[in-house]
């Protein structure tokens, strides 16, 4: 079963994933029934980058399990501003809490932090690296909509810096899934992720145009193309327009294709999609609570 | 200095390390790994593109009064996988070893990714796993395939 901390999706086996998702289903069916799972347990929220969904869903999950959270607050108001190292910060905080949820702008921050503490630690995003708890809720959402085997999934947008993409791609290698990656040339998957997918024997194709693969997709996972990655506005507009999903875009897709997005979106998915049966992104965000309840339930269990 | 002195200097050292069967052309990189740039006062002899039965051509590096650490040997193995290490004491070879590719290289290479936590002033050693055709940062997962010597942090 899942180890003491969740640092990358690479450490998740199919069995780990199915155990967490099954447990999440139980919690989703009756969230208020889990209030006696971890009474008095305290989870420390250490977010060195802004977050709304991830932070609030972890907070909700901890409280739904009967526990509570302590929050480091903004970087500006913390001792980090005085130059304290991340290693020192987490060493101090492990004395206050039963688990730590960490988001940090540097890649590998969660791994390093976990090496300095004995309490369970969840990587809630480390720069352009990984975001494995997001992946669990993505998988939960995919399973709810299409199952997790014999699937064709398109993952589109900023694949180079998109940590949710990296984690999802790794986790999907546990299943019978054909992965299609759609991005501008400059935002292709990083070499390290392609290396891992190759090593895992994953069925992977890369494209620059969505049209080539859209009709085959059961799931279309869209991520934001970040304006700041482009040297000039014209180049960004050219690419951003090409990857915008509208009702017309979906004319060539399967009727039941699930459109997902880790959010926040800017304009890569038209609001006109929101009321269609294809829009899955708000359900996806809501699924963060039961999935993170299941994850915390597992990690905190090892501490009991 | 007489011709005989020169020949003795190249062929025999009193104590130190002779790194033989270095991939031809890599001798200067070996010195970089060892942190030898001439300012430390060590006596160093180099043979570059020397004929070799096993390799066709090889480089040879002789460093007096210096024995290599395991960490140095680990990185050396990545750029000179056929190298042999001869430890010399009182003109005799007291130890002869081949370098072996390690599973990981700790604290020797600097990660080229500026966004890696190992470049953020934290108390952490760099840690690279060794792949068939390169190395990979255990923290940010950046893969380095070319020009490893440019990343040596010695």
Automatic annotation (TrEMBL), chain A:
<dbReference type="InterPro" id="IPR006130">
    <property type="entry name" value="Asp/Orn_carbamoylTrfase"/>
</dbReference>
<dbReference type="GO" id="GO:0044205">
    <property type="term" value="P:'de novo' UMP biosynthetic process"/>
</dbReference>
<dbReference type="InterPro" id="IPR036901">
    <property type="entry name" value="Asp/Orn_carbamoylTrfase_sf"/>
</dbReference>
<comment type="similarity">
    <text>Belongs to the aspartate/ornithine carbamoyltransferase superfamily. ATCase family.</text>
</comment>
<feature type="binding site">
    <location>
        <position position="53"/>
    </location>
    <ligand>
        <name>carbamoyl phosphate</name>
    </ligand>
</feature>
<feature type="binding site">
    <location>
        <position position="103"/>
    </location>
    <ligand>
        <name>carbamoyl phosphate</name>
    </ligand>
</feature>
<keyword id="KW-0808">Transferase</keyword>
<feature type="binding site">
    <location>
        <position position="224"/>
    </location>
    <ligand>
        <name>L-aspartate</name>
    </ligand>
</feature>
<dbReference type="GO" id="GO:0006520">
    <property type="term" value="P:amino acid metabolic process"/>
</dbReference>
<dbReference type="Pfam" id="PF02729">
    <property type="entry name" value="OTCace_N"/>
</dbReference>
<feature type="domain" description="Aspartate/ornithine carbamoyltransferase carbamoyl-P binding">
    <location>
        <begin position="4"/>
        <end position="144"/>
    </location>
</feature>
<feature type="binding site">
    <location>
        <position position="82"/>
    </location>
    <ligand>
        <name>L-aspartate</name>
    </ligand>
</feature>
<feature type="binding site">
    <location>
        <position position="134"/>
    </location>
    <ligand>
        <name>carbamoyl phosphate</name>
    </ligand>
</feature>
<dbReference type="GO" id="GO:0016597">
    <property type="term" value="F:amino acid binding"/>
</dbReference>
<dbReference type="GO" id="GO:0006207">
    <property type="term" value="P:'de novo' pyrimidine nucleobase biosynthetic process"/>
</dbReference>
<dbReference type="Pfam" id="PF00185">
    <property type="entry name" value="OTCace"/>
</dbReference>
<comment type="function">
    <text>Catalyzes the condensation of carbamoyl phosphate and aspartate to form carbamoyl aspartate and inorganic phosphate, the committed step in the de novo pyrimidine nucleotide biosynthesis pathway.</text>
</comment>
<comment type="pathway">
    <text>Pyrimidine metabolism; UMP biosynthesis via de novo pathway; (S)-dihydroorotate from bicarbonate: step 2/3.</text>
</comment>
<feature type="binding site">
    <location>
        <position position="264"/>
    </location>
    <ligand>
        <name>carbamoyl phosphate</name>
    </ligand>
</feature>
<comment type="subunit">
    <text>Heterooligomer of catalytic and regulatory chains.</text>
</comment>
<feature type="binding site">
    <location>
        <position position="163"/>
    </location>
    <ligand>
        <name>L-aspartate</name>
    </ligand>
</feature>
<feature type="domain" description="Aspartate/ornithine carbamoyltransferase Asp/Orn-binding">
    <location>
        <begin position="150"/>
        <end position="298"/>
    </location>
</feature>
UniProtKB/TrEMBL annotation, chain B:
<dbReference type="InterPro" id="IPR002801">
    <property type="entry name" value="Asp_carbamoylTrfase_reg"/>
</dbReference>
<feature type="domain" description="Aspartate carbamoyltransferase regulatory subunit N-terminal">
    <location>
        <begin position="8"/>
        <end position="99"/>
    </location>
</feature>
<feature type="binding site">
    <location>
        <position position="111"/>
    </location>
    <ligand>
        <name>Zn(2+)</name>
    </ligand>
</feature>
<protein>
    <recommendedName>
        <fullName>Aspartate carbamoyltransferase regulatory chain</fullName>
    </recommendedName>
</protein>
<comment type="function">
    <text>Involved in allosteric regulation of aspartate carbamoyltransferase.</text>
</comment>
<dbReference type="GO" id="GO:0009347">
    <property type="term" value="C:aspartate carbamoyltransferase complex"/>
</dbReference>
<dbReference type="Pfam" id="PF01948">
    <property type="entry name" value="PyrI"/>
</dbReference>
<keyword id="KW-0479">Metal-binding</keyword>
<dbReference type="GO" id="GO:0006207">
    <property type="term" value="P:'de novo' pyrimidine nucleobase biosynthetic process"/>
</dbReference>
<dbReference type="Pfam" id="PF02748">
    <property type="entry name" value="PyrI_C"/>
</dbReference>
<feature type="domain" description="Aspartate carbamoyltransferase regulatory subunit C-terminal">
    <location>
        <begin position="104"/>
        <end position="146"/>
    </location>
</feature>
<dbReference type="InterPro" id="IPR036793">
    <property type="entry name" value="Asp_carbatrfase_reg_N_sf"/>
</dbReference>
<dbReference type="GO" id="GO:0006221">
    <property type="term" value="P:pyrimidine nucleotide biosynthetic process"/>
</dbReference>
<keyword id="KW-0808">Transferase</keyword>
<dbReference type="InterPro" id="IPR020545">
    <property type="entry name" value="Asp_carbamoyltransf_reg_N"/>
</dbReference>
<dbReference type="InterPro" id="IPR036792">
    <property type="entry name" value="Asp_carbatrfase_reg_C_sf"/>
</dbReference>
<dbReference type="GO" id="GO:0046872">
    <property type="term" value="F:metal ion binding"/>
</dbReference>
<feature type="binding site">
    <location>
        <position position="116"/>
    </location>
    <ligand>
        <name>Zn(2+)</name>
    </ligand>
</feature>
<comment type="subunit">
    <text>Contains catalytic and regulatory chains.</text>
</comment>
<keyword id="KW-0862">Zinc</keyword>
<keyword id="KW-0665">Pyrimidine biosynthesis</keyword>
<dbReference type="GO" id="GO:0016740">
    <property type="term" value="F:transferase activity"/>
</dbReference>
């Amino acid at each position: 079963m899942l180890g003491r901390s969740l640092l990358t999706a690479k450490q998740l086996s199919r069995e780990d994933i199915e155990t967490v998702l099954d447990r999440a289903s139980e919690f989703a069916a009756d969230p208020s029934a889990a209030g006696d799972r971890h009474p008095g347990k305290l989870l420390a929220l250490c977010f060195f980058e802004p977050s709304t969904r991830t932070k609030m869903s972890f907070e909700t999950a901890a409280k739904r399990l009967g526990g509570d959270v302590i929050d480091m607050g903004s970087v500006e108001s913390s001792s980090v501003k005085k130059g304290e190292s991340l290693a020192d910060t987490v060493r101090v905080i492990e004395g206050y809490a039963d688990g730590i949820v960490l988001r940090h702008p540097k890649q590998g921050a969660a791994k390093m932090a976990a090496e300095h503490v004995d309490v369970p630690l969840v990587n809630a995003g480390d720069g352009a690296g990984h975001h494995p708890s997001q992946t669990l809720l993505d998988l939960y959402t995919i399973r709810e909509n299409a199952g997790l085997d014999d699937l064709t999934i398109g993952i589109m947008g900023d694949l180079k810096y998109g940590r949710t993409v990296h984690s999802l791609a790794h986790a999907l290698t546990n299943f019978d899934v054909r992965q299609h990656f759609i991005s501008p040339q400059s935002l292709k998957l990083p070499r390290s992720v392609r290396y891992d997918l190759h090593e895992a024997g994953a069925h992977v194709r890369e494209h620059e145009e969505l049209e080539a693969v859209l009709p085959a997709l059961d799931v279309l996972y869209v991520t934001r193309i970040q304006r700041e990655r482009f040297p000039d506005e014209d180049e960004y507009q050219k690419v951003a327009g090409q990857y915008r999903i509208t009702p017309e875009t979906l004319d060539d897709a399967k009727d039941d294709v699930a459109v997902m997005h880790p959010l926040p979106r800017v304009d890569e998915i038209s609001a006109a999609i929101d009321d269609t049966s294809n829009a899955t992104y708000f359900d996806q965000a809501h699924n963060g609570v039961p999935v993170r309840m299941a994850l915390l339930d597992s990690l905190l269990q090892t501490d009991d | 200095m007489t011709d005989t002195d020169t020949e003795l200097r190249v062929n025999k050292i009193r104590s130190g390390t002779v790194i033989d069967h270095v991939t031809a052309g890599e001798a200067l990189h070996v010195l970089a790994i060892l942190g030898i740039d001439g300012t430390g006062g060590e006596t160093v002899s180099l043979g570059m593109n020397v004929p070799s039965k096993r390799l066709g051509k090889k480089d040879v590096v002789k460093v007096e009064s210096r024995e290599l650490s395991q960490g140095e040997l680990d990185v050396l193995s990545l750029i000179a996988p056929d190298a042999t290490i001869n430890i010399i004491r009182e003109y005799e070879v007291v130890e002869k070893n081949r370098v072996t590719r390690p599973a990981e290289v700790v604290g020797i290479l600097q990660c080229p990714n500026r966004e890696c936590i190992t470049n953020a002033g934290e108390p952490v050693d760099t840690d690279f796993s060794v792949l068939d055709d390169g190395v990979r940062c255990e923290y940010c997962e950046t893969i380095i395939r070319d020009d490893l010597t440019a990343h040596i942090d010695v």
